Amino acid sequence: MILAALAAAFLAPARIPANAQSKAFNLGRWMQTQTALLQELNRSYVDSLPVERMQKAGIDAMLATLDPYTIWVPEEENEDFELMISHTYGGIGAIIWKPEKDGPVFINEPYEGSPAALAGLRCGDEIHFIDGATVVGLTATEASSRMKGKPGTKVNFKVKRVYTGEMEDITITRRKIHLPNVEYYGILEDGRTGYVLLSGFTEGAASEVREAVKALQKQGMKELVLDLRGNGGGVLQEAVEIVGLFVPKGTVAVTSKGNGFTKEEAYVTPSEPLSTTLPLVVMVDSGSASASEIVAGALQDCDRATIMGARTFGKGLVQSVRPMPFGGQLKVTTAKYYIPSGRCVQAIDYSHRNEDGSVGHIPDSLTHEFKTLHGRTVRDGGGITPDVEIKGREYSRLAYALSYGGVIEHYTIEYCRAHESIAPIADYHFDDYEGFIKFALGSEFDARTSAMASYDRMVEDLRKDGLEESFAAELSALKARLDMDKEAFLRLKKDEIIPLIEQEIVSRYYFQKGAVLMHLRYDDALRQALKSPRI
């Protein structure tokens, strides 16, 4: 009787929901089709198949149909992936610059306290040999790879010193380099407001914030500004712990919800707070994403902080890393997260996005109302809407071209080569803009105004439609009005460009903290925040 019952259980068809059967069938059909297609290509295609390139392109295209954050990382890219998610690597701790493949490697910016800095390497020093091998012929990436290695191992350099011109042999012991999450903290000019600039959420971020806040409390801080502008996020648990610095232990900071196979999970603050009454301002912008949105959103929902700035990016998706065959890894979206009011900060869809990828305008009719702890109304639809909206500084197309085109960075290195020291940060003011203009005029970059770039796009569209000749006279007149000489444009934007140059220069002498202090000199949004009312 028992054997008959067991046999019946094994032979009876499993009761699988119809949608699961359909899903399994479609997946099986797709896998068989893909295998058959590749086998036939391998057998019949006229040339040898570029298998590795096909594999990478095929997987990337497949995952791109899901969301922007699910990616496959092949084994050879694991090191770069690890640096991206942990801000940690084994090396000497310096940013390098190699303008020519057949030239030397320049030290661009050593990190404060790094093996490179402790060995006395300065911006402008030239590396000619690494472990006895010339750097001539190497790309910047190849040279960087030779400098990296297991912490505790040594790497030998032959360096031409920037200020003496002498060649020196320098041996540096590699170390585990961890880029800090807290780039700067200190008391602002008013003597009462603490300021913490958090740029990432890698492992240890919460501990760094905790130590910064404790230090500021000892200095007599009466109010705290936590700056999350431009912070693209990171580890969810670090965000939960940072929320826990300011709310009671056991507070639900965020809840993740996946598909039917992934259980709902609530993340509660794990430790006693530093303070539940310290006045708190959190600054955000369109670059504040993911873990930044958890912190800002949870503190807003708990009515624990005043959120100031611009609407955040709108990324409410949780990624997990799964091992793949042959040493690869899959970073896959496994859940959406919901902050305490019950709203999800994920954009309603990926089409309502601005040029920078942040969430665009979503009509209220497509969103839902939620309530904070004290009954204030907040909405979903994508991102965190600040309690106090403050418009950040807008930069011209020229400023972006000079920055991202490397012109300011290249000039900074040349400036450092000519100046062994500069004044203290508080007293330093860049006073050679004419020299910069001369340097920039000899550099390649796109110096068009935004209006001129739009004009060029319009002309191209008219050409495609066969209408360019019909509007020739009007186009010529418009171009004459819009076109601006490169030098004239540089002079026009002097007040906008000088702060960018100063930040780059100061960072080479006073490291990243110096750059932050220089940025604070011109941070109008922060000044507006300090004057704005709190909730």
Explain what the structure shows.
By secondary structure, this protein is an alpha+beta fold. Strands 3, 4, 5, 6, 7 and 8 form a six-stranded antiparallel β-sheet that branches. Strands 10-11-12-15-16-21 form a six-stranded mixed β-sheet, sandwiched between helices. Strands 1, 13, 14, 17 and 18 form a five-stranded antiparallel β-sheet that branches. Helix 13 packs antiparallel against helix 14. The chain has three domains: 88-177, Pdz3 Domain, CATH 2.30.42.10; 182-389, 2-enoyl-CoA Hydratase, Chain A, domain 1 (Alpha-Beta Complex); 397-449 and 484-530, no CATH class. The chain is built from 17 helices and 21 strands. It has helices at 2-11, 18-44, 51-64, 78-86, 115-118, 140-147, 205-218, 236-243, 291-301, 397-404, 407-418, 433-441, 450-464, 472-482, 486-492, 494-521, 524-531; strands spanning 71-73, 88-91, 94-97, 105-110, 126-130, 133-134, 154-160, 167-173, 175-178, 182-187, 193-198, 223-227, 252-257, 265-268, 280-284, 306-309, 317-323, 329-338, 369-371, 377-379, 388-389. The radius of gyration is 28 Å and the shape is globular.
Structural key phrases:
6-stranded mixed β-sheet; 535 residues; 2-enoyl-CoA Hydratase, Chain A, domain 1; 6-stranded antiparallel β-sheet; disordered N terminus; 3 domains; Pdz3 Domain
Ordered list of secondary-structure elements with their pairings:
Layout: H1 2-11, H2 18-44, H3 51-64, E1 71-73, H4 78-86, E2 88-91, E3 94-97, E4 105-110, H5 115-118, E5 126-130, E6 133-134, H6 140-147, E7 154-160, E8 167-173, E9 175-178, E10 182-187, E11 193-198, H7 205-218, E12 223-227, H8 236-243, E13 252-257, E14 265-268, E15 280-284, H9 291-301, E16 306-309, E17 317-323, E18 329-338, E19 369-371, E20 377-379, E21 388-389, H10 397-404, H11 407-418, H12 433-441, H13 450-464, H14 472-482, H15 486-492, H16 494-521, H17 524-531
Parallel strand pairs: 11-12, 12-15, 15-16, 16-21
Antiparallel strand pairs: 1-18, 2-9, 3-4, 4-5, 5-6, 5-7, 7-8, 10-11, 13-14, 13-18, 17-18, 19-20
